[in-house]
Structure formats: C-alpha cells, structure tokens
C-alpha cells in the first residue's frame, strides 16, 4: 500500500499465492478486501498510522493516507509482506478464481465476481448470498454508491453461440433475491461504474473502444455513447462529483470524459497503461508502475489565496464561455498524441465513415423503410434479457 | 419399467451395507431409509415415501419400509401387490422378509386404506439373480446370522411432518400444521395432545381422522425435515373444521367461516412448479421492476443537481472561532515564555496604572542593564542590516548592463509620471524638462534623420530595408514630429498669452483709455493684416497635410481674409472717429468729459480689482478676469462709438484672441462658478459706468442668456451693494459722468447674438466637403470590393493576325467578355446591401479579424442563434461587473475543497416543482446538514 504522494510503499500485504485480480477498501478505509486467482478472498486490516518497522514513512506520511484512501480506493496496491491479518475465506466449492471484488458503501458487505457473484459479510466465512446468471463468468462487479443495495455486474460474452449475449446484470444484494436484468451486448463489457451522484445511471466500459452510459431502468438503449479510445476500454471509474469519469484503455491512454459528453475532455498517455481511478487519476500499468495524474492538467496545486482563486475562476469562466470560437476551440481541444494512437484514431474515423457510407448506399438501394435507422446508442445492443 | 443403473448400484451398496450392518443401529436404519429414498427420487420424478413404523398395533419393532411409488391418487387405491407378478430385481432376503411382514400387518390393519395403498407392491419388477453374498457362493462376504435388528426397548420414534402437507391444506392455520407435525404417530397420543391443547374431549377428534385424503406431491428428498407421506396421513390429521369448531359462538366466527368457505370454493389444484430457469427469470423480473420503482425516487434529486449551475462539495468544516479576538480569548499560556509574558500583561499593578493615567507606568518602567544591552544589540543589528543594504545598492549601481539600466530608467520614468499626477510641483518640473528636451530637439534635430545611420539608410532607400529598420526610421520621424509639434503649440499658447498679458498690462498701466482704445484698434488692424498676409504656409506633414484638410484650410482662409478686410475697414473708420473724438474731448477737458469718465472708470477698475484681490482668493484667475473686464469695456466703447457695427464673432476672433473670446470665457466662468465671481464681474461693470449699471446688467443678462438667470437673480442685492459702494467711492465724478454716460448708454444696444448650433457647426466645417468625400469613399470601397473589369487591350499579334486586328479592332469575344464582366459587376453592386442607402457604406468584404469571433455552427447546447449571442454578449470580467455579481458569474460548475471527501449522493425529498425561494431554503438547509450535500446556487438565481 502506498501513501499518497510518497514514493515507497507504506505497507505490504503478503499472502496471496496467485495473481491478485481485485482489490477494494471499505468506506472507512480500515479494511481491505482482495481476491485473486488462488481462489481466495482475503480481508486485511489496514493498520492506521501505527507504522513501526517501515523506516521511510513517519507518522506524518501515513496520516494523509487515511484521508485519501477513501477518495481513491482503488489506488491501493500492495506487494509483499507485513501487516496482513485476520480472515481467510475459501469457498467450499471449487470455483474458478475470483475476478473482481467491490465493497459496499457504508456497509459490511462486499461482493466478489467469478463464476458467480457472491455477497460476503465481514463477519461471516460463507457468502451471504450468491447469484448466478446462466453459466457466464462475471468479469466485474460494482456496488452502487448511492443505493448501496444495488450492484451491477458485467459478464463475459458467451463464446459458443454466435448471436451471443453478454449480460451486464444488475442485481440487488440485500434481499434474498437478486434483481438482475441484462442487456445483450455485442462485445465484452470489461468494467462498470456507477455514477455516485446519479444512482440510476452507470457507465460500462466496452471492448469496442467506447463506453456506454445506461439508465438502469432502460437498458434497451444507451443514454450516451462515449467514443474516442482506439482500443478496448479496460477500466472505468467515476469522479466522486459524478460530473466526469475516467477510462483506461488498451491503447495506453487514459481519457477523462464528461458524464454527458460524447468525446473526451482530456487524454493522458504513456507507454503501457491500463486502468485507473480517482479525483486525481491513478493508473496502474503493465510495467508495474502506478501513475498519478491530475484530473485537470493545468490546475494549480497547493493553497490558493482567495484573490488568486477568483482570478483563476474568472479565467476558467472566460475559457468556458468562448470555447466555441474557432481559435479558442483549437487550443482547448488540442492534445498531443503519440503517433500510433493518432493514426489509429484517424483510421477508425475512416472506417466508421466508410461504414456509414456503405449503409447509406444500401439504404438508398433498398425499399424505403426496409432498413430503419438505428441510433448508435441502440446499435450495439442485441436485446434486453430478463 | 424403471431401469436405472443408479439403482442397481445403490442396491449393491445397500447389500454391502447390509452385510456389515450387524447390529443395525437406529441411526443407521434412518440412514438406510434415507438412502433408499434417495435412490428412488433419483430414479424418476414419481413420489415415494418410506413408512417408518406402524405403531398403532403397539408393535414397537422397527421396520424399514420397502420402495414404493405413488403414481397417482386413483392408482393408489386399487393396487394389489399380490396379484402382480413379481418381476423386479430380487430383493435381499432381509428386505423381502420385512416386506412380507409389513404386508401381513397391513392386511390385519385393514381399516387403514392409505396404508394398504402404500403396500410394498410397487417394488422393482424385473428378475434378478440372487446376489452372490446371499447365495453364499462367494466367500468374500461375511456371513450374517441375523438380518433383523431389534431395537432396544427404550428407543422411541419420532416423526416429523413433511412440507408437503401444506399442499393440500392450503389455507390452514399454521397452528394446525404445527399440530399435525407434532402429533401423528400415535392416535391416542395425538388425541391426548389435542385434548390438552384444545380442551375438548378426545371423542371430538375421532370422527375426523380419515377425512383427510392426502395427496402429496413431494419435491423434496426425504429426510427428517421432510417426513414421508404415510407418516402424515390419516391418523392425527386435523382439519380446519376441528380448529374452528371451538370458536363457535365467539365474536368474528361468522366472518371466519365465510372466508373459509370462500377459500374452499376457490381452491384449485396446485400447478407443478416451473423449471428453475424460468423461476429465476421471473424472480429477476419482479425484483428488477421493484428496483426500477425504487430507483426512480432519485429522479427529482438528480434532475435538480443537473440543472444547478453549480454543485457544491465543500462541506462546512468546523474551523472553530473565526475572529482573532475569539481565538485570543481562548489562549492559555503554556510555555515558560508565554507564562512570563502573561504574568506581566495581566499584572494587577500595571493594569491599574494603565487605567488611571499612565504616570505610574513610568515608575514601573525601570530599565535594567540587560535591557539596555539588548537594545544596543538590536540597534547594532539594524545598523548592520542598513550597511548591507547600502552595499547592495552600491553593487547595483555598479552594474554595467545596458538592459538593466534601461529597465531601471523605465521604472524611474513610470514612478515620475505617477508622482507628477500627484504633485503639481513635480509636474512643473517635468514640464520644464520637457521644454528643455524640445529645445534640445530643435537645436540638434537629433530625430530628423540627420544621423549618420539614418542618412545611410535613406541613401540606400527605405524600400530595400527590412521591416525593423523601417519601423525604427518611422519611429524616429514620429518622435521628431511629436516633439516639434508639441513645442509649437505650447509656445504659441504661452507666447500669445504672455504678449497679450504684457500688452494689456502696459495698456492698463500706462496709457489712457483713449490711447488704449486706439492702440487696441491698431493692434487689431495689425493682426488682421498679419492674418491676411500670412498665407500659403501649408503644413507639409501631419494630419493637416492631408489633401482634404488643405482644401478646407484654404477655403477657410479665403473667408477669413474677406472678413479681415472688412474688419480692417471698420477699424480704420473707427480709428478716425476716435481721433475726432479725442479732439473734441480735449476741447471739453476742463469740464466734465468722457475722458474723466474713462479715467474714473479706470481707477475704479483698478480699485475693484484690488479689492477683489483682497476679497476673494481666486488667485490667478483674478487678473485674467480683470483684463477681460477691461476688454469688455473697450468693446463697449467701440460699440458706443459706432453703433452700426455688428460684432461678428469670426471677425472678433480674427481681430484678436483677446476680446470677445475671453469675454465669453468670463461669462462662462461666471456661469460655472456662480456666487462671488458673478457679483464681482458685474461690479466691475458697475464701476465702469455709473448710471449705466442697470443697463449694463440687463445687457449682461441678455448676453449670458438663460444660463445666467439664476445667478444674477441671486446676486442682485449684492450687486446693488456694490453699486452703492461705488457710488460713494466716486461721488465727486458722479454728476459729470451721468450725463455723458446717459448719452453713451442710450446708444448702446444689445446687438450681439449667440450663433445657433447649426450655424456654429457650419462654420466649424466650412471648408469640408463631406458629402463629396463620402461619395468618393464609397466609390472607392465599391471598386475595391467589386473591381471594375479591365478594359480589353489590343496587343498586336495576340489572338489574331495583326492585319485582321488592324481591320477589325478588338475581337468580338473580348468585347463580349468585357461586357459580361461589367454586367456582372453591376448586378453585384445592385445586390449590395448599401445599394439603396445613400449615406451608408456596408462593407461586404469578409473581415478576417471578425471571423475569429464567429462560430461556424451553432454550438451544441444552444438551439437558437439569438440565445447564443445573448449568452456571450455581456462580459463577465471584474472590469465590467460589480463585485457582488462577479462571483456568481464566474463560479465553476463544481466547487470542491481540497481534502474534503466527496461522499456519494444521499437521499432527500425534493419537490420537483419547487422553484426560486424554495430552492434557496433547501440550499440553506443543506448547508447546515453535513455529508455530500449539494446546494443550489441561490445567489445566481436571485441575480437572474
């Protein structure tokens, strides 16, 4: 575990025998849940500000951790050794390994995803509840922060049958039953995130380079399609303000989207990078590094005096007001991208354009009405499964 | 009928089990039954029961029931196992024995139909060889002597009702079910229990026992929790009726019975449960619907947040006291030093001394040697600091960098300018400096491209120079022009002022009035002549050198010349008259004369001016005003002398910049600063001409028009006072003056009128031919934007052979082309927006600079152009808006505080229709509450 703003790990938790696939922290930041390919879920006590044997971190550097853990729960990574404590859960059936874990907001429950979705309690060694949806493997699971009893999962595409269904299901944890509904999606949904300020809305990160925002009540149509990535979107998380979210993609970029915008506001890139989270954005990558980005790249860090703050607010407002003027727009939207990504996006544009043209021509040559226009928001969805 | 490999295996297992089971314990017996039931349920979907015991005959012996299947209710009753051929697999001996035994018991217990049906008739029906272990062919198996196991006496049996019972007795009370469960094994026991519970005699239950035809469809594996059907059937079953009967006659009984009837009528057979997948699907659907409904409750809240211009995530973190006083009041000395200080501060003695008069403080204030030393040390320190500062300054002074010094100079200049604005003395000094600079410029002509560098550049030609050099040259020239022009204007003003001042001073002091008048006239003449003579000095550079300016100047000059000539004539005539008059006056010198009057007037003027100088401290303006006043007098005089002279303002202006203008100025002054000045001005008039005072005043008023009215009215009494004073002062000359003045004043008439505004404007722009200019401009613009097509030029040898060219002139296609182009141009001109607007030029040229400020398309959230334009119309900066609105205008969409954890949304009731004030209230409410609260930006709403 790392303290925010320090280079070296503060704590190290050792115990997993296989790769760790999921990690989450409870709301108060005292308990850490991790799961992995060794078919175990482990619960860790996070030692707070009582570091004895790590010489690098004094008490001062640990304290802020307690604060930031909450804001950026998924930032926490761990490697080796020391303060691991307490429980050890092992399900009594031999299941394929766990793929994801998420903790309930302000509660004692956490959910793991693997062959099925299990709901666990801190104080019990057996799952409180488990849900199954067909035989699909569940890839990711997320609790709804606003409505803590609702969780959403996304599952792997059914491989054998061609008109495949990929259920992203929504299930209710607390009751004995689950409410799950699924929308079949043509491609795999890698991750899901709820909007913390709008409990009915969630966004799914999809393999087809885009994210789809859904209203949980109307799953037959996405509310917004967020495009810009040029490769599969691997992870997604909402900003606590609910106004924007950040996505990490296989194309080695991290992008920040407005919650209702079709295109990204900001893009960060580096070699190798995959997933992310937070109000600062923290991304973990294949090269075993965590990176911390500012959510607003040009924002000034540190304490702002009121006058300075006012001035910056004014400048920001002016920028916002005139962002539509061509010159301002050019500057605001300009981002320097690595060549491959830039080219890939250009290629994607060409491809989509060609597709569109072809469809137009087909439509022109077919009987009127025989090829109805399907909006992009619906296009990728096969059907809603109950 | 049923072929199941499982079953065989099971049997095999059972056999092995049997072999080993000596002596069979009750638990294992139980397990056996379990095992058997397990097989059967696995085998088919049919239901099966194991009857454990039949205790009614008092047979305490434990028996294990054989397999049995229940196909249907109808089938059950007519099955007769005996008639059927046994074709099933061979049962183990033990089992068979038991079955036989059971059959016997059942037959003997013929009253029990249910059990009959349960008889071991439906056992497996195919042939099977005798198992090896029984045929004793194989020594592998242990011999078992006794297959039957007898339970010890003390063992009791217990039965638990299965869940299935609920199926037939649907609406039954829970109580009854419990009842059944607890009590079926033994009739008597059951009856006893019933008796215990209900308090009714045993007979009450006897008749009902077999009413209950139990049809059980069992979905559960048999276990102690799901007892077999035959355990439940018959014996101890209680119907609802049983339970209801005792309630007879109590309140609510009829109601209960009615509902029971309804239930009985409605009761329909239970459908078989759906497959698991379907069931789950349904469950999901229901929960999903439910959750949908649940989650919809967030809608108004989310909507409100989305519509809010600003979301607030800065919770009020309790910072404690906010004022310094409050913080200080809480202060408690902790360290040694603090304690010492507080002891001193809060010392009673000191406090008291302080409260009284402080004299005692001196006594208290004894300085010790250490203190003095401290003080000295501090001083030394300060001195060192000072010294260091000095050293630093020295170093800075030594810096040779030109850039540094240039910057330093710039800063100094800036400071000087700032100081000039503040300090008049400094301003004067600076003006002097400027003057010096100008003089220097005149002397050296430093900036007139006279330097070697400039000369060289000019020699090589400006066109070949690069941009920077050209700019530098232009800059130089500009500076020169600036310096010289300023100089000129300054000099003109100052010199003319000076000269006039001096002149008038001279006039006033030395010469008599008449002399002065003549002198004045002469001077005017001189000036007019000067004006006439001075011609053709057209400026060669600057704005005045522009052609239209030159034209205007010339025109004006012409008119001025004419006027000047006229004026000259007049001057001459008036001079002659004056001469004539002087002669007359000289004659009349002994008695009363105008001269005396003038003298008196003069004296009075001086007196009054003196007085004024004493009285009101208007400083510099005084003398000026005096002069003006005298001028006025002169003007009056000239008026007197020549009644028919009309004072043309232009003429007057030409005559001198002294007289009329300054007169106007004085009047303006009067109007401007009312009060004392006015009175003084008028007083001068009064002093000048005694009896004419009223006349004068009326004239003055007339001239000053409405502007003066108020002030003069106010001043009237004051004015009278002055009059009286003056009268007293110059009493001796009173009588003489009267006459002459009377004559004089009779001649004066208010001939001057202020020109109208239009007149003035016309005069001001006399030389400009604006309309023509405009037309030309417009034509130029049109030509620029829609250029005229080039005239076709005959180029010999091009297009055609020269001989043909010579013969035919221009080829027809060229002409046509030209014609077309011309037509096109005309069309374009007609289409222009300003085609029918005579006085307007609307440029249709695309302005690249303006282009920057336009969007190509309407930006996304806006639906109409007007709205978008409106939205960016008003500036939002602090320069354009009051401080109170700035915050609201510039507030970002999300306001958050660093380090404050933003929690997810919390539910609260929001009325979706509430607006305005309600919002405000809710916002405040939220501000109080903690936790991820979002407040509506009330300020902004209010402002809008």
Automatic annotation (TrEMBL), chain A:
<protein>
    <recommendedName>
        <fullName>DDB1- and CUL4-associated factor 13</fullName>
    </recommendedName>
</protein>
<dbReference type="GO" id="GO:0000462">
    <property type="term" value="P:maturation of SSU-rRNA from tricistronic rRNA transcript (SSU-rRNA, 5.8S rRNA, LSU-rRNA)"/>
</dbReference>
<dbReference type="InterPro" id="IPR001680">
    <property type="entry name" value="WD40_rpt"/>
</dbReference>
<dbReference type="InterPro" id="IPR020472">
    <property type="entry name" value="WD40_PAC1"/>
</dbReference>
<dbReference type="Pfam" id="PF04158">
    <property type="entry name" value="Sof1"/>
</dbReference>
<dbReference type="InterPro" id="IPR051733">
    <property type="entry name" value="WD_repeat_DCAF13/WDSOF1"/>
</dbReference>
<dbReference type="GO" id="GO:0016567">
    <property type="term" value="P:protein ubiquitination"/>
</dbReference>
<dbReference type="InterPro" id="IPR019775">
    <property type="entry name" value="WD40_repeat_CS"/>
</dbReference>
<keyword id="KW-0539">Nucleus</keyword>
<dbReference type="GO" id="GO:0032040">
    <property type="term" value="C:small-subunit processome"/>
</dbReference>
<keyword id="KW-0853">WD repeat</keyword>
<keyword id="KW-0687">Ribonucleoprotein</keyword>
<dbReference type="InterPro" id="IPR015943">
    <property type="entry name" value="WD40/YVTN_repeat-like_dom_sf"/>
</dbReference>
<feature type="repeat" description="WD">
    <location>
        <begin position="13"/>
        <end position="46"/>
    </location>
</feature>
<dbReference type="InterPro" id="IPR036322">
    <property type="entry name" value="WD40_repeat_dom_sf"/>
</dbReference>
<feature type="repeat" description="WD">
    <location>
        <begin position="260"/>
        <end position="303"/>
    </location>
</feature>
<feature type="domain" description="Sof1-like protein">
    <location>
        <begin position="295"/>
        <end position="381"/>
    </location>
</feature>
<feature type="region of interest" description="Disordered">
    <location>
        <begin position="354"/>
        <end position="378"/>
    </location>
</feature>
<dbReference type="Pfam" id="PF00400">
    <property type="entry name" value="WD40"/>
</dbReference>
<keyword id="KW-0677">Repeat</keyword>
<comment type="similarity">
    <text>Belongs to the WD repeat DCAF13/WDSOF1 family.</text>
</comment>
<feature type="repeat" description="WD">
    <location>
        <begin position="226"/>
        <end position="267"/>
    </location>
</feature>
UniProtKB/TrEMBL annotation, chain B:
<dbReference type="Pfam" id="PF04615">
    <property type="entry name" value="Utp14"/>
</dbReference>
<feature type="region of interest" description="Disordered">
    <location>
        <begin position="720"/>
        <end position="752"/>
    </location>
</feature>
<feature type="coiled-coil region">
    <location>
        <begin position="550"/>
        <end position="588"/>
    </location>
</feature>
<feature type="region of interest" description="Disordered">
    <location>
        <begin position="906"/>
        <end position="944"/>
    </location>
</feature>
<keyword id="KW-0175">Coiled coil</keyword>
<dbReference type="InterPro" id="IPR006709">
    <property type="entry name" value="SSU_processome_Utp14"/>
</dbReference>
<protein>
    <submittedName>
        <fullName>U3 ribonucleoprotein (Utp) family protein</fullName>
    </submittedName>
</protein>
<feature type="region of interest" description="Disordered">
    <location>
        <begin position="150"/>
        <end position="195"/>
    </location>
</feature>
<feature type="region of interest" description="Disordered">
    <location>
        <begin position="49"/>
        <end position="122"/>
    </location>
</feature>
<feature type="compositionally biased region" description="Acidic residues">
    <location>
        <begin position="498"/>
        <end position="512"/>
    </location>
</feature>
<keyword id="KW-0687">Ribonucleoprotein</keyword>
<feature type="compositionally biased region" description="Basic and acidic residues">
    <location>
        <begin position="72"/>
        <end position="83"/>
    </location>
</feature>
<dbReference type="GO" id="GO:0032040">
    <property type="term" value="C:small-subunit processome"/>
</dbReference>
<feature type="compositionally biased region" description="Acidic residues">
    <location>
        <begin position="724"/>
        <end position="735"/>
    </location>
</feature>
<keyword id="KW-0597">Phosphoprotein</keyword>
<dbReference type="GO" id="GO:0006364">
    <property type="term" value="P:rRNA processing"/>
</dbReference>
<feature type="compositionally biased region" description="Basic and acidic residues">
    <location>
        <begin position="150"/>
        <end position="159"/>
    </location>
</feature>
<feature type="region of interest" description="Disordered">
    <location>
        <begin position="486"/>
        <end position="515"/>
    </location>
</feature>
<feature type="compositionally biased region" description="Acidic residues">
    <location>
        <begin position="111"/>
        <end position="122"/>
    </location>
</feature>
<feature type="compositionally biased region" description="Basic and acidic residues">
    <location>
        <begin position="906"/>
        <end position="921"/>
    </location>
</feature>
<feature type="compositionally biased region" description="Acidic residues">
    <location>
        <begin position="160"/>
        <end position="173"/>
    </location>
</feature>
<keyword id="KW-0539">Nucleus</keyword>
């Amino acid at each position: 575990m790392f303290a925010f703003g320090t280079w070296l790990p503060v704590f190290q938790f050792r115990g997993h025998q296989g790769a760790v696939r999921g990690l989450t922290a409870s709301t108060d930041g005292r308990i850490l849940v991790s799961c992995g390919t060794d078919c175990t879920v482990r619960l860790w006590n996070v030692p707070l500000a009582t570091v004895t044997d790590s010489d690098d971190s004094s008490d001062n550097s640990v304290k802020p951790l307690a604060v930031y853990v909450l804001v950026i729960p998924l930032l926490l990574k761990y490697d080796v050794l020391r303060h691991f404590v307490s429980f050890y859960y092992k399900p009594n059936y031999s299941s394929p390994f766990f793929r994801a874990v998420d903790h309930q907001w302000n509660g004692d429950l956490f959910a793991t995803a693997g062959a099925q979705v299990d709901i666990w309690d801190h104080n019990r060694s057996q799952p409180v509840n488990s849900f199954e949806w067909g035989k699909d493997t569940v890839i990711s699971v997320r609790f709804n922060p606003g409505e803590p009893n609702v969780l959403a999962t996304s599952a792997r595409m059914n491989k054998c049958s061609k008109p495949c269904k990929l259920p992203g299901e929504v299930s209710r944890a607390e009751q004995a039953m689950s409410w799950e509904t699924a929308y079949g999606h043509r491609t795999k949904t890698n991750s899901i995130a709820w909007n913390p300020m709008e409990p009915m809305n969630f966004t799914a990160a999809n393999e087809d380079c885009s994210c789809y925002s859904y209203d949980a009540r109307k799953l037959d149509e996405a509310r917004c399609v967020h495009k810009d990535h040029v490769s599969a979107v691997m992870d997604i998380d909402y900003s606590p303000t609910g106004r924007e979210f950040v996505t990490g993609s296989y194309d080695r970029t991290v992008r920040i989207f407005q919650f209702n915008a079709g295109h990204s506001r900001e893009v960060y890139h580096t070699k190798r990078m995959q997933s992310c989270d937070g109000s600062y954005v923290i991304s973990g990558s294949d090269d075993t590094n965590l990176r911390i980005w500012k959510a607003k790249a040009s924002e000034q860090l540190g304490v702002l005096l009121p006058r300075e703050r006012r001035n910056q607010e004014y400048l920001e407002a002016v920028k916002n007001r005139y962002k539509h003027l061509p010159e301002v727009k050019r500057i605001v939207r300009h981002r320097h991208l690595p060549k491959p990504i830039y080219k890939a996006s250009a290629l994607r544009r060409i491809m989509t354009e060609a597709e569109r043209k072809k469809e137009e021509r087909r439509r022109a040559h077919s009987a009127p009405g025989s090829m109805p226009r399907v909006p992009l928001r619906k296009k990728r969805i096969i059907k809603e499964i109950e | 009928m049923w072929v199941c490999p499982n079953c065989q295996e099971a049997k095999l297992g059972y056999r092995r089990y049997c072999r080993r089971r000596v002596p069979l314990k009750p638990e294992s017996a139980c397990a056996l039954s379990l095992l058997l039931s397990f097989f059967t349920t696995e085998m088919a979907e049919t239901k099966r029961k194991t009857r454990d015991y039949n205790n009614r005959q008092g047979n305490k012996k434990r028996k294990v029931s054989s397999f049995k299947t229940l196909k249907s209710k109808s089938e059950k009753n007519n099955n007769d196992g005996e008639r059927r051929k046994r074709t099933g697999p061979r049962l183990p001996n033990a089992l068979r024995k038991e079955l036989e035994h059971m059959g016997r018991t059942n037959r003997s217990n013929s009253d029990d139909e249910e059990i009959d049906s349960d008889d071991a008739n439906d056992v497996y029906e195919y042939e099977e060889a005798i198992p090896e272990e029984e045929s004793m062919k194989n020594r592998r198996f242990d011999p078992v002597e006794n297959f039957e196991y007898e339970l010890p006496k003390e063992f009791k049996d217990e039965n638990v009702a299965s869940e299935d019972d609920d199926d037939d007795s649907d609406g039954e009370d829970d109580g009854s079910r419990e009842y059944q469960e607890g009590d079926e094994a033994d009739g008597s026991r059951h009856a006893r229990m019933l008796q215990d519970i209900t308090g009714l005699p045993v007979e009450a239950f006897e008749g009902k026992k077999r009413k209950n035809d139990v049809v059980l469809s069992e979905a559960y594996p048999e276990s102690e929790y799901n007892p077999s059907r035959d355990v439940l059937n018959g014996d101890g079953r209680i119907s609802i009726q049983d339970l209801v009967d005792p309630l007879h006659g109590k309140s609510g009984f009829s109601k209960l019975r009615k509902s029971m009837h309804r239930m009985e009528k409605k009761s329909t057979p239970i459908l078989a449960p759906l497959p698991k997948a379907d069931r789950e699907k349904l469950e999901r659907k229901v929960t999903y619907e439910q959750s949908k409904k649940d989650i919809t409750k967030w809608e108004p809240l989310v909507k409100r947040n989305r519509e809010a211009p600003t979301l607030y995530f800065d919770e009020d973190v309790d910072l404690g006291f906010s004022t310094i006083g409050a913080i200080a009041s809480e202060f408690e000395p902790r360290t040694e030093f603090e304690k010492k200080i507080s002891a001193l501060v809060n010392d009673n003695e000191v406090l008291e001394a302080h409260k009284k008069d402080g004299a005692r403080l001196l006594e208290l204030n004894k300085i010790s040697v250490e203190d003095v030393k401290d003080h000295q040390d501090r001083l030394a320190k300060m001195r060192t600091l000072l010294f260091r500062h000095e050293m630093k300054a020295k170093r800075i002074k030594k810096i040779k960098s030109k850039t540094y010094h240039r910057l330093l100079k710039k800063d100094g200049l800036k400071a000087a300018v700032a100081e000039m604005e503040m300090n008049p003395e400094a301003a004067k000094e600076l003006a002097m400096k400027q003057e010096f600079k100008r003089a220097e410029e005149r002397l050296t002509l430093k900036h007139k491209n006279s330097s070697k560098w400039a000369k060289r550049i000019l020699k090589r030609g400006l066109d070949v120079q690069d941009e920077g050099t050209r700019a530098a040259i232009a800059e130089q020239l500009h500076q020169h022009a600036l310096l010289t022009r300023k100089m000129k204007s300054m000099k003109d003003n100052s010199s003319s002022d000076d000269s006039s001042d001096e002149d008038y001073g001279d006039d006033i002091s030395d010469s008599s009035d008449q002399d002065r008048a003549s002198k004045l006239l002469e001077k005017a003449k001189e000036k007019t002549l000067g004006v006439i003579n001075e011609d053709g000095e057209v400026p060669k550079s600057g704005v005045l050198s522009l052609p239209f300016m030159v034209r205007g100047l010339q025109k004006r000059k012409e008119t001025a010349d004419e006027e000047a000539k006229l004026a000259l004539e007049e001057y001459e005539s008036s001079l002659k008259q004056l001469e004539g008059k002087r002669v007359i006056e000289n004659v009349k010198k002994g008695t009363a004369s105008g001269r005396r009057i003038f003298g008196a007037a003069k004296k009075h003027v001086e007196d009054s001016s003196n007085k004024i100088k004493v009285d009101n401290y208007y400083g510099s303006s005084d003398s000026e005003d005096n002069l003006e006043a005298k001028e006025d007098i002169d003007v009056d005089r000239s008026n007197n002398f020549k009644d028919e002279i009309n004072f043309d303002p232009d003429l007057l202006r030409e005559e001198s910049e002294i007289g009329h203008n300054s007169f106007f100025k004085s009047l303006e002054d009067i109007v401007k600063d009312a009060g004392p000045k006015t009175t003084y001005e008028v007083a001068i008039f009064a002093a000048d001409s005694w009896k004419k005072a009223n006349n004068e005043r009326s004239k003055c008023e007339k001239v000053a028009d409405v502007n003066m009215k108020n002030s003069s009215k106010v001043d009237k009494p004051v004015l009278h006072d002055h009059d009286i004073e003056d009268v007293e002062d110059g009493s001796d000359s009173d009588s003489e003056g009267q006459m002459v003045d009377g004559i004089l004043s009779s001649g004066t008439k208010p001939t001057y009128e202020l020109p109208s505004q239009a007149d003035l404007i016309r005069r001001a722009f006399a030389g400009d031919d604006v309309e023509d200019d405009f037309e030309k401009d417009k034509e130029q613009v049109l030509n620029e934007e829609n250029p005229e097509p080039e005239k076709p030029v005959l180029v010999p040898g091009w297009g055609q052979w020269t001989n043909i060219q010579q013969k035919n002139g221009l080829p027809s296609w060229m002409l046509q082309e030209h014609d077309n182009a011309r037509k096109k141009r005309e069309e374009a001109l007609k289409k222009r927006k300003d085609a029918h607007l005579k006085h307007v030029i609307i440029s249709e040229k695309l302005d690249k600079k303006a282009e920057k400020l336009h969007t190509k398309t309407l930006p996304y959230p806006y639906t109409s152009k007007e709205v978008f334009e409106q939205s960016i119309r008003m500036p939002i900066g602090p320069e354009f808006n009051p401080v109170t609105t700035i915050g609201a205008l510039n507030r970002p969409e999300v306001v958050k505080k660093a380090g404050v954890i933003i929690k997810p949304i919390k539910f609260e009731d929001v009325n979706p229709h509430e607006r305005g004030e309600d919002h405000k209230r809710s916002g405040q409410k939220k501000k109080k509450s903690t936790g991820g609260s979002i407040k509506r930006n009330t300020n902004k709403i209010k402002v809008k």
